[in-house]
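Box 3.1 — From sequence to structure: peptidylprolyl isomerase
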Amino acid sequence: MFLQRNFLSLALVAGILSLASCNKSGDFSKTPSGIEYKVFKSTGAGKYDAKDVSSEGDATYKERIGKIMALHVEYRTAKDSVLFNSRKQQMGFPVRVPLDTVRKAQRGGLEEAISLLQPGDSAVFRFNVDTIFAKSFRQPVPPFMSKAGKTMTMYVKVDKVQAQAEAMADVQKMQVEQQAKMAAHAEDQLKKDDVALQAYAKKNNLTVQKDASGVYYAITTAGPGPKPKAGQIVSVLYKGSLLESGKVFDSSEKVGNKPFDFAIGQGQVIPGWDAGIAQFPKGSKGVLLVPSSLAYGQRGAGADIPADAILRFDVELVDIKNAPAQPAAGAQMDEAEIRRQIEAMQRQQQGK
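Predicted structure (token representation):
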């Protein structure tokens, strides 16, 4: 479901565009676990020479275990669609990955690939998509990835390897700088988006209203019910599309026209939905026009929603319900609730 804020947990690592051309010539080497790879060493001026790396692993990797690797990465599908790019989606800041012993169960995954690299290296890795999702992401392959093909490619540029204390200091500094950059970018982008949204509404003869956050909405069919209050559970039918191209990226039709339920005003969806759906009385139909800063911002969301994308949602607020009552403090849980919590903990542990 694209509306969930933690849509893409693929943001573990990413790559460099200048290396993309290296994928088009020469043969890949291959590890016994099936990872295809090319490793390069910079010769300056944006040029790279191939570097020999044993498919059995880098003998010096054991010296880096326990440290943190800072790297820029890019994921692409088998059809060459960009899934994640750290330079663009992290405002130029690298991803940091703890280095640990590569266990047998991790062979064929990201962990083994990263163990082949040293500071200053660049590389192209090609993974079997079933293997990478099973071993590194520990989740089923998303349908759009399966549809794209049997492989996933990762481009990597290693910046440096640091001791944990040094890396932590860098991360704290980076977070402050990143927040300032993101805030400045969002403010500037919101002004641009607002101009585009007004032009779109005029061109498409939409009579819209604007809420305090910057979301535009148009109620095309007014419902008879009340508006939802913060904390209530709303049920929404929707179709989401990119404002610029009109391309549909998600809809209720994909799940049998089943409404999407969420607690409004609780941060369970993008801010534009929390703000926009709150304006609709129960039973209403209409349109939400969401500026990028209230959607997925500069990061985007996977291959279907690019960075700084303005979104349109055609919505219907089907139902509003009060949230289930919470157990009183100290109330005794029944056996079913205890079992549910244990199962939830087990699933969480398996996801680590």
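Summary of the box: Residues 164-203 form the longest helix (40 residues).
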